[in-house]
Amino acid sequence: MAVSETAEGRQGEAGRRAGPLRPGQRANAADRHVGARIRERRVMMGLSQQQLARMIGVTYQQAHKYERGLNRISAGRLFEIAQVLGVTVSWFFDGLATEAEPQEISSRQRMCLELARNFALIDNEKHQEALSQMARALAAQSQEGSGTAGLAEAAGAH
Questions:
Q1: What is the pLDDT of residues 112-126, one digit of tens each?
Q2: Is 74 within 8 Å of 27 (Cβ atoms)?
Q3: Is there a contact between 72 and 35 (Cβ–Cβ < 8 Å)?
Q4: What is d(CA 54, CA 158) in angstroms, rounded to the nearest whole number?
Q5: Are 71 and 28 in contact (CB under 8 A)?
C-alpha cells in the first residue's frame, strides 16, 4: 500500500512542479529551432531522413525526433550533423534570438527548398548547368528589367 501511495504522490508532484513544460517534455523552443534548421539543410541537400540518420549513425526515428525538436541533441552530435550537412554549428542557431515563436514556413521558402531538393536530385550535370544558367538569366532579367535578352542569351549558350 505504501508503494502505491508513494508512486501516486510522485505523479502528483511532477504535475505541480512542471510549470510551463509538461512532464516528459524535454525539448524547448531552441531545440525545435535547431531541429527545423537541420531539416531545412537536409532538404536543401536532397537527403532523406534515412540517409541523414545513416550518415550520423542514428536510427531514422532518432533523426526524426531531432528534426521535430522532440529530443535534444548533444554538442558532439550537433557538431557531427554540421559536418555531414556542410555547415557550421552556429548555422543551426541563426535566427533564434529574433524568433519569438515558431513561424510557419512561407510558400516562397517552401518553393526554394523544393527547388534545391529537386536540383540536387538531377543526375545529369549538363541539365543542372542548364537550369542554373536559366535561373541566372531570369534573375538578371528581373534585376535589369531588360526583357528577354538575357533569356535568349542563356538559351543560345546550349
A1: 888 888 888 899 999
A2: no
A3: no
A4: 38
A5: no
Using a CB cutoff of 8 Å and minimum separation of 24, what contacts does 147-152 make? Answer: none
Question: What integer pLDDT is reported at residue 101 of this predicted model?
Answer: 56
pLDDT band at 64 (very low <50, low <70, confident <90, very high): very high
Whether pTM > 0.70 for this model: the answer is no
Please name the residue that has the C-alpha cell 538531377.
Answer: 122
* Confidence grade of residue 15 (pLDDT, cut at 50, 70, 90): very low
Could you give the CA distance from residue 23 to residue 60 in angstroms, rounded to a whole number?
25
Phi, psi of 32 (to 5 degrees): -65, -40
- Check residue 57 and give its pLDDT: 95
Q: How buried is residue 143: exposed, middle or buried, by Cβ count under 10 Å (0-12/13-18/19+)?
A: exposed
